[in-house]
Amino acid sequence: MTAPIGEEPTEKLIVNLSPELRRDLRIRAAELGLNVSDATAHALSAWYARPDTPAVEVKGAKSWGTYLPAGGVARFASECQQRGVTKVQGLSQAVTAWLLAHPAVPVENRLTSQPVKRILVALQKGGVGKTFLASGLAQALAEMGLRVLVVDYDPQGHLTRRLGQELIPMDSKASLLDHMLGLATRHIRRSLVVLPQSRFGERLHLLPACPDAFLFDVALSRMRAGREESLARALEPIEADYDVVILDGPPSLGLAMDIAMHYVQRRPGELADRSGILMPVWPDLPSFQAYDLFDSQRRELMSMARVQVDELGFVVNAYDSRKGASVQARRDEWEERSAPGVLAVFGDLKEQREAQDRSVPLLEYDPHCELSSGLRALAREMAA
Ligand SMILES: Nc1ncnc2c1ncn2[C@@H]1O[C@H](COP(=O)(O)OP(=O)(O)OP(=O)(O)O)[C@@H](O)[C@H]1O
Ligand SMILES: [Mg+2]
């Protein structure tokens, strides 16, 4: 007997699973209000009862981990052995059968009732690839046909400059901070820039940074009320124009980060893991330490403000296998985490630096490079 579903998951199962099955499992679980571990446990239970489950394709499966109730890992291993299948095949069969038994909610029923999807790309560690990821993901989503707003929420203004755009001048009463403080003198739509490349079909809009963002924490701490909702209030007049809003987070933990996390909280009626935080990390020890601190801030915010802020996943960035076994081991360590999982691994590749030097969007600079293809795959996963 497998341990009953609903018990505290206690054991970690690490098996390869294809990115497609991981994505579909995550999405379908969220649609059904389950977490991934519970969905996997359901899938395995059903699989144990069906010895005739057909074989499936396991090509491209990558290391993946999840938690099972006590005894679940041994039960799974012995069932695979009895059936003469590998664990990858066994888990892939179970997940495929479960997905077939739980068809997707029709898109038209889903989209109408869901708010704009909001993604905060963040980690307080500097230089891990937040701007690269926020920008690349926004480009790939717009290329797919979605209407995307990417917000330069970092006072450094890197995103704005790398997309070849100008910062909003100080004292213009048109910055994001002005809108958050209620001091703006014109509609926020007038502060947006439409990225000109035909590849994005005028669907990719940028809210540029303004140097006043360095005053963010000071200015916002003086607000007497409604500070937490200030970003939602500022963006509300334009949210309906977009399918996705992406924030490029600053390399710091503080009030600005709290407010950004607050903005991507799960809204009433919104599916789990639809909006939330996407975290670029490096395959190194400081990234694990940075993440622990970041996660404690997220948890504290959730408990103090009584909100749910979902983690959408990690992106392991600047991975270079030539840097040795410890880099490989750290990458594996990230990949073996199930909640949240690793959604993509990007190499340290020259095209990003070249595009940046020219202030041209990466997908425009080299649409066929490995990074552009990887960003498109990530965008397909995030768009669902
Ligand atoms: N996968 C990659 N391949 C090559 N270069 C990369 C990659 N990812 C990021 N970079 C480069 O590394 C540098 C840091 O990346 P990025 O600015 O995106 O990090 P960040 O986390 O936004 O930094 P900050 O904390 O300052 O905001 C940039 O020069 C960027 O072009
Ligand atoms: Mg940045």
* Overall geometry: globular
Query: Which sequence of SSEs, written as H and E, runs from N to C?
Result: EHHEHHHEHEHHEEHHEHEHEHEHHH
Q: Structural class, judged by helices and strands? A: alpha/beta
Strands ordered across the widest β-sheet: 5-6-4-7-3-8-9-10
Sketch the major β-sheet: 8 strands, mixed
**Helicity, in percent?**
40-55%
Estimate what percentage of residues fall within beta strands.
Answer: 5-15%
CATH class of the largest domain: Alpha Beta
Q: So, the CATH homologous superfamily of the largest domain? A: P-loop containing nucleotide triphosphate hydrolases
CATH topology of the largest domain: Rossmann fold
Low-pLDDT runs: 1-7
Please state the CA-atom Rg, rounded to the nearest Å. 22 Å
Bound molecules: adenosine-5'-triphosphate, magnesium ion
For the terminal residues, how far apart are their CA atoms? 35 Å
Average of per-residue pLDDT values: 91
- Count the strands? 10
Can you offer a commentary on this structure?
With 384 residues, this protein is an alpha/beta fold. It has two domains: 11-101; 110-383, Rossmann fold (3-Layer(aba) Sandwich). Helix content is 44%, strand content 15%. It has helices at 19-31, 36-48, 72-83, 87-101, 107-113, 130-144, 158-162, 176-181, 216-221, 230-239, 255-263, 285-305, 325-335, 350-357, 362-365, 370-383; strands spanning 11-17, 62-68, 117-121, 148-152, 193-194, 204-207, 244-248, 276-281, 311-319, 342-347. The protein has an eight-stranded mixed beta sheet with strand order 5-6-4-7-3-8-9-10, sandwiched between helices. The protein has a two-stranded antiparallel ribbon with strand order 1-2. It starts with 10 loop residues before the first strand and ends with a helix. 43% of the residues are buried. Bound molecules: adenosine-5'-triphosphate and magnesium ion (MG). Residues 126-132, 154, 156, 158, 251, 317-318, 346, 348-349, 352-353, 356, 371 line the site of adenosine-5'-triphosphate.
